[in-house]
Design a protein that fits this description.
By secondary structure, this protein is α/β, with parallel strands linked by helices. The protein is built from seven helices and 16 strands. The protein folds into two domains: about 180 residues, 3-Layer(aba) Sandwich (Rossmann fold); about 80 residues, Immunoglobulins (Immunoglobulin-like), CATH 2.60.40. The longest helix is centred in the middle third of the chain and has 17 residues.
């Protein structure tokens, strides 16, 4: 039996410094994300921001109509800085790791040169690693522009291609009617892909692991107590329920499952989440068997 879904508010806390289990300060990698109106979906979705921000010091620099170079297109009478001007204006504030998700407003015949000019600006700013998202090829020019991204990556070892086009190809439900701009689920999936790339590159601090695989047997009407265990990540941990536990049972932020079950005998499955001091989180299904 599964419990009903509980309303979960995901709080986004970008922590630049945390305390490890040994008590030493752990410095998180500073990551700047430069995007246009597509990536801007992450900026307005709290869960997407939480997903991408796990284990990093996150700086979102997102603006509709942004172009890599030249004059950006107007939105509400305002033209945002293009990516190169933004990079130059950030100066030392830009992270050593930068994610670029810009291109939907750029011109196909200029994009290859714009990518190279943007990479040059990032090098001048001291950026060490660039993660560049491909464009969802909902329109023919984006196929050519994705080839430009791949060609630049082949010449620049500091550039990693994050293939959003392939990752999203079979998921039209992630997108609005234009097939490009994101619904909430699409924003969360883009954030997940970016975070996965940062994790694989060793930029994002790894999340904790829930090592509790099974809960001890509970008896209806009798006090119950069990402690959940997690390893990795950065202490302290904070535990929460993503689904309602059986009536009478609750989960403490410390990871202690306790209470007096008031449900009939059976098996009850619910999701738990652990979040570490870096904001990294992991979820797991747990099953509680209740006997008479």
């Amino acid at each position: 039996m599964r419990g009903g879904l509980a309303c979960v508010a995901v709080a986004v806390a970008a922590l630049a410094v945390s305390v490890s289990a040994s008590g030493r300060a752990a410095q998180l990698q500073h990551v700047t994300v430069i995007g246009d109106s597509v990536a801007d979906g992450i900026g307005v979705d709290s869960r997407a921001k939480a997903l991408i921000g796990q284990g990093i010091d996150l700086d979102l620099e997102l603006a509709p109509c942004r172009r890599l170079e030249g004059v950006s297109c107007p939105v509400d009478g305002v033209r945002p800085q293009n990516a190169i001007d933004l990079i130059n204006s950030l100066g030392a504030k830009i992270g050593p790791d930068v994610v670029v998700a810009v291109g939907y407003n750029d011109h196909e015949d200029e994009y290859a040169g714009n990518v190279e000019d943007t990479l040059a600006a990032l090098r001048s700013a001291g950026v060490k690693h660039v993660f560049w998202l491909t464009l969802r090829a909902a329109r023919h020019p984006y196929i050519t522009m994705n080839a430009d991204i791949a060609a630049s990556a082949a010449k620049h070892p500091e550039m990693t291609v994050v293939d959003w086009n392939v990752y999203s190809r079979s998921h039209p439900d992630w997108f609005q009617d234009d097939g490009i701009h994101l619904k909430n689920l699409g924003s969360e999936m883009m954030a997940t892909l970016i975070h996965r790339s940062l994790l694989q590159a060793g930029v994002a601090a790894p999340p904790p692991r829930i090592v509790t695989a099974a809960l001890p047997l509970a008896h209806r009407g009798h006090p119950y107590r069990a402690a959940l265990r997690s390893l990795g990540g950065t202490r302290p941990y904070t535990w929460s329920l993503l689904e309602r536990a059986p009536a009478g049972i609750h989960l403490e932020p410390s990871g202690v499952v306790e209470g007096t079950p008031r449900v009939k005998a059976g098996r009850y499955t619910f999701d738990v989440q652990v979040r570490d001091a870096n904001g990294s989180m992991t979820t797991r299904d747990l099953t509680l068997r209740v006997a008479r």
